[in-house]
């Protein structure tokens, strides 16, 4: 060991000078980047830019305006590939891939990639393949695409023998896309390329191209809520470009989708796991509250409250079917607490609790009054052989679908996002009208008037189901009563 040269300044000053030099040489990024800056800004990227400036000027311009260009992250840093990668091809002397998957982004953005990968978003295609195996396999695996599910849910991207992507599987940036490298998801579902801006992703429009329409009518719900109204009026005060975006601190004019489902509030971190704060499953025929199971490897899945609660340390099947150890379980109550923490930045505790109570009661009302009786009657008819096992081939089944899916989802999402229009006039009123109208008419046509009334009485416990439905149909008064009494 060398003895210290007495003419040198003491250690702490040396350390200070070293730290200062480091700070001056290495840029400090607002976004946490895991890769050492020495490993990007690769020289091969220069030729991509000069050529693509001509061949695709718009795309290159988007990149030039981005935080990536400012930080010297170029085309090749993202599009580089190993010759052995399934979708690698040679392009102007370099080996590249067109798809930049979450695995590629994850070299620099580990945390966001891990959270997105663990989230329910990334299970969007897996869920469909499991729930609709026949449809998924139909027409050489093209069934889901032809049914119109994959633009939002994602495709399995396949690669032809020559390394090019099969055109029937891409372009696609669906949220649960399965990539040639095995990774799942598509970061440019929300972060439009090639600007990859977080300000753009914070805007409610980032979610609109999937979360609108009868599958998930959130854009409509938000737009017709007070929150959406205020966002429109005060967009300039939303500070969308801010490095940090903490509710109540960096902005207060209105919450966006991202405020409630993803970003930070005092005491809660921002997360790319969008489903974390939701207690209910609002898109099934009958709603149930769900626990969130967190596995040892970070992956997640939901377990309905009616199923046995998974225990810490026990083995449980993941969504992809493999077994893994349970690390922690977030109960619906815990998930609700986290969501409520966002609200109390702008509302009182009492207001927030009152809202949540009304919302829960709305879902229970939908469940008990319409969803459970309708589901039980359908079940009874299948058991009696009065309906064929084939789904959606009979008028009664089509009205049942519209009852819980088109009308029922709209009502429940509308109530969750505080939109009276979607919750009531476009939601619960239509549920009531369909239950007592078209659906009952079809039921009578199928089994006869008397049997229909017997079934209705057996499962609703009411002799005249229409009576209460009128209360829902006249609407405003019922809605108000429900709000005031919390029933
Ligand atoms: C080679 C490293 C690297 C790769 C690969 C990379 N990024 Fe980045 N990313 C960065 C750096 C550096 C920044 C800028 C950090 C800053 O300015 O604070 C950044 C910033 C961002 C931002 C914030 C932009 C803003 O508006 O402030 C987003 C969003 C982002 N990246 C998404 C992605 C996505 C999605 C991918 C994959 C398609 C990706 N990045 C791939 C290094 C990388
Ligand atoms: C000499 C000009 C030139 C250079 C250099 C060049 N490209 Fe291209 N690139 C093109 C042209 C032309 C196309 C085809 C555009 C089209 O199909 O419209 C293309 C297509 C692409 C595609 C899309 C392929 C697909 O599957 O659709 C990607 C990704 C791409 N280039 C990335 C890069 C990257 C990364 C680099 C740097 C390593 C690079 N390019 C260098 C001209 C060039
Ligand atoms: C931050 C990472 C990143 C950088 C930097 C980047 N790309 Fe991309 N690029 C992507 C992603 C992500 C996609 C979407 C592919 C997919 O997932 O379907 C893409 C798609 C493309 C495509 C095909 C899709 C289309 O819209 O036509 C071309 C061509 C392309 N990039 C060229 C370039 C060029 C040229 C540059 C540099 C000027 C560049 N990229 C810089 C991430 C990046
Ligand atoms: C490319 C399509 C797409 C985009 C963009 C998208 N989502 Fe989703 N989202 C989905 C799909 C599909 C599901 C259903 C996933 C599943 O559970 O199988 C989903 C599920 C969800 C859920 C429900 C989670 C649960 O617990 O069931 C929430 C909350 C959500 N998304 C919020 C958002 C927000 C907020 C944005 C915008 C920042 C967004 N999503 C952008 C397609 C998308
Ligand atoms: C416009 C985009 C879009 C299209 C197209 C779409 N979905 Fe969805 N889907 C969503 C969103 C967003 C959700 C999330 C709703 C939620 O979790 O509350 C969802 C949720 C679901 C769910 C419940 C969650 C799950 O994954 O288990 C099922 C099942 C489903 N979709 C099936 C389908 C099928 C089948 C098709 C094609 C016939 C389809 N979807 C087409 C956007 C879409
Ligand atoms: C559901 C939409 C959605 C998807 C999908 C998505 N992001 Fe984001 N991302 C956002 C939003 C919204 C923000 C801003 C969050 C905030 O400010 O709290 C963000 C912010 C970021 C940031 C900036 C983080 C910071 O510290 O400021 C990075 C980096 C990033 N995303 C990378 C990714 C990568 C990598 C992927 C794919 C693995 C991805 N994102 C997929 C919506 C999304
Ligand atoms: C003021 C906060 C808030 C805003 C803004 C908001 N949401 Fe929600 N969202 C909620 C609450 C609360 C729930 C119900 C949570 C539960 O189940 O306990 C919910 C439920 C959902 C669900 C259903 C989740 C499930 O489990 O089925 C989706 C999908 C969703 N929101 C997407 C969005 C999108 C997209 C936007 C923007 C267009 C948005 N939300 C705006 C608070 C908000
Ligand atoms: C960033 C601030 C902010 C956050 C976070 C926020 N809100 Fe709001 N909210 C507002 C503002 C502002 C209004 C409009 C108040 C007014 O003028 O009536 C509002 C109005 C409402 C209303 C309409 C009822 C009324 O007339 O006041 C409901 C319901 C509501 N919020 C529920 C919630 C819930 C539930 C959450 C959390 C999931 C939440 N809000 C989160 C700012 C916020």
UniProtKB/TrEMBL annotation:
Alphabetical keyword list: Oxidoreductase, Signal
E.C. designation(s): 1.7.2.6
Top EC class of this enzyme: oxidoreductase
GO molecular function, a single term: oxidoreductase activity
PANTHER family linked to this entry: DISSIMILATORY SULFITE REDUCTASE SIRA (PTHR35038)
The name this protein goes by in its record: Hydroxylamine oxidoreductase
Natural source organism: Candidatus Venteria ishoeyi
């Amino acid at each position: 060991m060398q003895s210290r040269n007495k003419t040198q300044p003491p250690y702490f000053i040396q350390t200070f000078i070293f730290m200062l030099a480091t700070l001056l040489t290495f840029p400090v990024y607002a976004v946490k980047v895991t890769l050492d800056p020495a490993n990007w800004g690769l020289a091969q990227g220069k030729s991509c830019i000069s050529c693509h400036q001509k061949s695709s000027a718009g795309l290159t311009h988007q990149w030039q305006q981005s935080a990536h260009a400012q930080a010297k992250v170029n085309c090749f840093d993202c599009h580089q590939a190993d010759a052995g990668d399934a979708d690698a091809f040679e392009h102007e002397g370099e080996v590249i891939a067109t798809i930049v998957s979450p695995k590629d982004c994850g070299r620099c953005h580990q945390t966001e990639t891990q959270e997105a990968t663990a989230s329910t978003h990334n299970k969007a295609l897996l869920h469909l393949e499991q729930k609709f195996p026949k449809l998924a396999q139909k027409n050489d695996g093209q069934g889901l695409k032809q049914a119109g599910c994959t633009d939002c849910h994602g495709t399995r991207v396949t690669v032809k023998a020559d390394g090019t992507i099969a055109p029937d599987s891409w372009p696609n940036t669906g949220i649960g896309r399965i990539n040639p490298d095995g990774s799942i998801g598509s970061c440019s579902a929300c972060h439009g390329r090639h600007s990859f801006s977080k300000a753009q992703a914070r805007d409610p429009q980032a979610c609109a191209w999937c979360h609108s329409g009868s599958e998930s009518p959130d854009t409509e719900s938000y737009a017709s809520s007070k929150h959406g109204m205020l966002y429109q009026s005060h967009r300039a005060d939303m500070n969308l470009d801010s490095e940090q975006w903490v509710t109540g601190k960096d902005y207060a004019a209105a919450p966006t989708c991202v405020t409630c489902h993803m970003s930070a509030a005092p005491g809660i971190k921002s997360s790319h796991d969008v489903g974390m704060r939701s207690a209910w499953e609002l898109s099934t025929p009958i709603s149930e509250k769900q626990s969130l199971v967190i596995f040892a490897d970070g992956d997640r899945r939901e377990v309905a409250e009616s199923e046995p609660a998974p225990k810490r340390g026990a083995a449980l099947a993941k969504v992809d079917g493999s077994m893994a150890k349970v690390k922690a379980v977030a109960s619906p109550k815990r998930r609700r607490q986290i969501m409520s923490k966002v609200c109390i930045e702008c509302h009182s505790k009492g207001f927030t609790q009152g809202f949540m109570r009304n919302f829960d009661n709305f879902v229970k009302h939908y469940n008990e009054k319409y969803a459970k009786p309708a589901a039980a009657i359908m079940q009874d008819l299948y058991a009696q052989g009065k309906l064929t096992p084939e789904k959606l081939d009979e008028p009664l089944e089509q009205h049942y679908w519209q009852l819980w899916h088109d009308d029922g989802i709209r009502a429940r999402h509308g109530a969750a996002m505080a939109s009276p229009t979607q919750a009531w006039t476009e939601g619960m009123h239509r549920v009531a009208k369909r239950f007592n109208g078209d659906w009952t008419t079809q039921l009578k046509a199928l089994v006869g008037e008397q049997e229909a009334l017997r079934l209705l009485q057996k499962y609703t416990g009411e002799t005249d189901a229409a009576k209460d439905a009128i209360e829902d149909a006249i609407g405003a008064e019922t809605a108000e009563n429900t709000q005031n009494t919390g029933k």
